[in-house]
Amino acid sequence: MAMIRTCVVTKEFEVMHDVDLAFVNSPDVSWYWVDFHEPTDEESDLLASFFRFHPLAIEDCLEYVQRPKLDFYDRYLFVVLHAIAGTTLEAEEVDLFVGQNFIVSFHKSSIHAVDDVWERLKREQDVQQGPFHVMYRLIDKLVDDYFPPLYNIEDVLNDLEENTNNEPIHDIIEKVFDIRGDLSKLRRTIVPMRDLLYRIIHSDRLQRMKERQLYFHDIYDHLLKLSEMIETNREITSDIRDSYLSLNSNRMNNIMMTFTAITTIFMPLTFIAGIYGMNFDYMPELRWKYGYFAVLAIMAVIGIMMFAWFKRNGWFQLLKGDSSKEERRR
């Protein structure tokens, strides 16, 4: 639902919610937070007409999803952050304008992290900390929301490695590629956020945030852990993919070996049958009383001998037995 939410903290640290937007400029206000929650075009125009933010920053808010970044303006910072959207894992942009006595957030969709921090402020927690602490809270909550999707991916990978449900190989390979796609989406969100936090921590222009560096270092550590988890899971998916592709290739080789052996066994039998299928008048053994049975016996002996030789040399691998051995090895 489109709306503009306001939260005002007075100089007596009284928290006031949903006040008229014009009240934020009152001399009794210590600092304020205005949240553009799925704004309409008319509400978005207030970024220029009421707050007078820089046109380039406003353009970044209204256009397609930007890469996480930090821009410095005369009286405020402009920060682009990324949230993760539900099950799709697509990046959703959260824009912050952070000044000495205000923070303005802008997002085109409902963001759980923003709502959570907003409700926390409603309970009159952290009201004395100011806009930069709210900025820290928002970034921290956004990063915390990155963990559940990765933990879910790890659980799915563990199930695929064990394959307790005996799923077909092509189904497993399809799931592995889906997981790699999800990991790529997360990587495109987490790595730029990690770079952004590194810049925030090491920027000389953020003197007012020096006392909060420990907090931002903690978020940066979380992002490093997330990056490592992504790379580890990508390696695991590569190993699973290569293992199952090798297993599938091995099974195909066994099938081809079996078919080749069967074809080879029937080659001399077909040769013998072909000879006695010729319509020559003079073939003495055709008139022999036991000729038919002798030929059948010879063909049976040749077939059995060739089958025994192929089996002894491993040409008749039972695919089900190979699969069981593979499962036991894993």
TrEMBL record:
GO molecular function list: cobalt ion binding; cobalt ion transmembrane transporter activity; magnesium ion binding; magnesium ion transmembrane transporter activity
Intracellular or extracellular location(s): Cell membrane; Membrane
Superkingdom, taxonomy of origin: Bacteria
Cited PANTHER family: CORA FAMILY METAL ION TRANSPORTER (EUROFUNG)
Protein name, entry field: Magnesium transport protein CorA
GO CC list: plasma membrane
Name of a matching Pfam family: CorA
Role summary: Mediates influx of magnesium ions.
Chief location bin: membrane
Family assignment from sequence similarity: Belongs to the CorA metal ion transporter (MIT) (TC 1.A.35) family.
Membrane-spanning residues: 255-278, 290-310
Entry keyword set: Cell membrane, Ion transport, Magnesium, Membrane, Transmembrane, Transmembrane helix, Transport
Membrane topology type: Multi-pass membrane protein
Gene designation per UniProt: corA
Origin species: Geobacillus thermodenitrificans (strain NG80-2)
